[in-house]
Backbone:
């Protein structure tokens, strides 16, 4: 009789969990439908005189591939916060007239779905990210408009996150007249521009040969398969990783209010290894490792579409690593990009700011070793050990070793063996 009650209780719990997940999915769908019904934006883009039909925007579509798009590349820079992704994104932003670069457009998607629906960020469906990325790579901003608050009026917004970080969105052709009494937090720095007109941005995007997007919000590489296999795109995915000990040290400074628990542990005793904060760190490390393991295994759908790069290697050899990334994407490494990299990796004075890209990179890469207590390093090594081993980050067993910069924490590793082999075989 007791066993029957146990089985009944298990069934009830399972039904509750399933119902909860269905409610979350339903709330996301209802939210998207509601925002799109509210705005119903007119089609932005026109191909050969006709608007791009919504049905053709589906990832599963077999839309005819425009022959004029031959040689066009679509670069997706995947990272997590405080891995140097803003800096590495500039490698492509600085390409000039041939590149349309976007800085964290998925910020709006994450903010809308997490704030407006109450869904935890970790539970946001990857489908929403996929749809927006596809739309942006095809130069259609109508899907993104559905997530911007307040909603754009006639495809014009003063609220696009970090607009100034995209050279393409601040060029003369996209620069609309300045409007009085309109506050723009993310205004262009290179010239005075009014609110962003998405129609002008789309036209500029279509004129560019290559597109690049930087994001820290896609957590699983396998969620991008349909995007990679879409015949309209030639996607090159670059996954940027960094020593998780350095990431934690950087986040504790950059996002101080969100890391009060870690700061308290740093000064007030032992870290509870079963705490939710520690489990979250472990989960993040596992996701990064699993994505890298998938990418490095080079399944058929990812062959020649994936590259892994360590931030520490870029900091030590910025020109060489940038050239390698450009070779991977099939885009020429321009003198303009090379000059920017040299200037911003050998800065005599390091600029301040969470998203600053100006630094003496070879010095900055080791500074975290002096800003994080050894006991926190031990925690990271315990929960992120497999990830560190995969990426070639050496462990330390004492505080003396941690601050001894003559002891390198970086193993020399070659990750993209299949790509390098294919590249060499061409000559």
Residues:
């Amino acid at each position: 009789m007791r066993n029957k009650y146990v089985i009944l209780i298990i069934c009830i719990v399972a039904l509750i969990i399933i119902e909860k997940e269905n409610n979350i999915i339903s709330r996301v769908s209802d939210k998207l439908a509601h925002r799109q019904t509210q705005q119903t934006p007119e089609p932005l883009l026109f191909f050969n005189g006709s608007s791009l039909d919504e049905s053709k925007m589906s990832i599963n579509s077999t839309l005819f591939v425009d022959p004029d798009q031959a040689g066009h590349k679509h670069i997706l820079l995947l990272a997590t916060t405080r891995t140097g992704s803003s800096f590495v994104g500039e490698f492509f932003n600085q390409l000039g007239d041939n590149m349309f670069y976007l800085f964290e457009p998925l910020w709006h998607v994450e903010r809308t779905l997490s704030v407006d629906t109450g869904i935890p960020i970790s539970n946001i469906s990857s489908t929403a990210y996929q749809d927006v990325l596809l739309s942006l790579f095809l130069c259609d901003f109508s899907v993104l408009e559905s997530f911007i608050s307040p909603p754009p009026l006639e495809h014009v917004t003063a609220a696009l996150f970090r607009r100034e970080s995209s050279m393409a969105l601040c060029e003369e052709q996209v620069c609309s007249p300045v409007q009085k009494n309109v506050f723009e937090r993310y205004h262009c720095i290179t010239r005075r521009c009014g609110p962003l007109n998405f129609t002008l941005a789309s036209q500029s995007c279509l004129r560019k040969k290559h597109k690049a997007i930087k994001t820290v919000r896609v957590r699983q590489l396998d969620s991008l398969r349909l995007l990679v296999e879409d015949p309209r795109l030639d996607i090159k995915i670059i996954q940027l990783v960094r020593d998780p000990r350095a990431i934690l040290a950087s986040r504790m400074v950059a996002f101080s209010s969100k890391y009060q628990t870690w700061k308290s542990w740093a000064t007030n005793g032992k870290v509870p290894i079963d705490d939710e904060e520690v489990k979250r760190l472990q989960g993040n490390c596992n996701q990064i490792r699993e994505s890298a393991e998938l990418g490095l295994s080079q399944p058929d759908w990812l062959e020649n579409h994936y590259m892994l790069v360590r931030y520490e290697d870029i900091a030590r050899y910025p020109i060489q690593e940038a050239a390698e990334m450009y070779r991977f994407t099939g885009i020429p490494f321009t003198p303009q990009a090379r000059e920017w990299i040299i200037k911003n990796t050998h800065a005599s004075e390091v600029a301040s700011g969470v998203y600053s890209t100006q630094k003496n990179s070879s010095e900055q890469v080791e500074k975290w070793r002096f800003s994080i207590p050894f006991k926190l390093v031990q925690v990271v090594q315990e929960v992120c050990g497999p990830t560190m081993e995969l990426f070639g980050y050496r462990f330390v067993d004492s505080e003396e070793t941690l601050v001894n910069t003559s002891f390198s924490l970086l193993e020399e590793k070659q990750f993209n063996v299949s790509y390098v082999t294919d590249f060499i075989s061409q000559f």
